[in-house]
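User: Here's a protein and a ligand (6-phosphogluconic acid). What would the complex look like?
Assistant: Let me lay out the input and then the predicted complex.
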Amino acid sequence: MTPQRTIAIYGSADELYRAAAALVATQLAAAINERGRALVALSGGSLTTRLYPLLANPPLREQIDWSAVSVLFADERYVPFDDAENTYRATRQTLLDHVPVQAEHVFPVPTYYRDPEQAAAIYHQQTAALLAAHGGKFDVVLLGMGPDGHTASLFPRHPALTGPADRLAVVVRDAPKPPPLRISLTPAALSAARTVLFVVSGADKAAAVAAALAETGDPLDQPTRLIQPEQGNIHWLCQRMNE
Ligand code: 6PG
């Protein structure tokens, strides 16, 4: 069944991130109300500095029973937890250390393994177990998009896009966006979602957004199109990019 898709355009980045944060809070609160718990996949980039602080502060902070939330990461840069580029570090600083989420419900990508393949295999298992415990789906997958159309660490025409269909987490080498070595959830994992949010700001992304929404051309050039949550919803929230 084709996912329901909505597109919302906001006049400023502030309006965009406020709307996106409110939607995340609403979706998580609804999941907890319905099933007693919620599973979210978080991305890095500007979401960590622009959206997560809104969730970490009133009024949204109190709208969510954080003790019922489990957190995975849609992707991670393969650097130590104390590296300024580490998404888990940034997310702790702007969200996780400021809300009563239970530490045992937060699952950072284990970037301390020397072999990233081992880390990806472990994250695959953790993702599979968490999805199984949450009815087979994330309640919210929160994603950004780069000017080249990448999302999470799924880059256009990268081999990571077309790995084994049953893999939930993969190693991404030579990523065009530094750092070059990453771990990413796969399109299959990110499609196991009740709600997918793409939150996109920046005029440099206008062409990539237009191409992704037009759904023309090769999906391997537009990784967001590989994320198709069956019986789920896709919400595009974008900042107006033309004057
Ligand atoms: C990362 C993110 C990545 C990000 C996009 C958009 O590791 O950087 O997971 O997918 O969401 O590159 O980043 P900006 O919002 O900062 O442009």
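Summary: The chain has one domain: 10-139+150-197.
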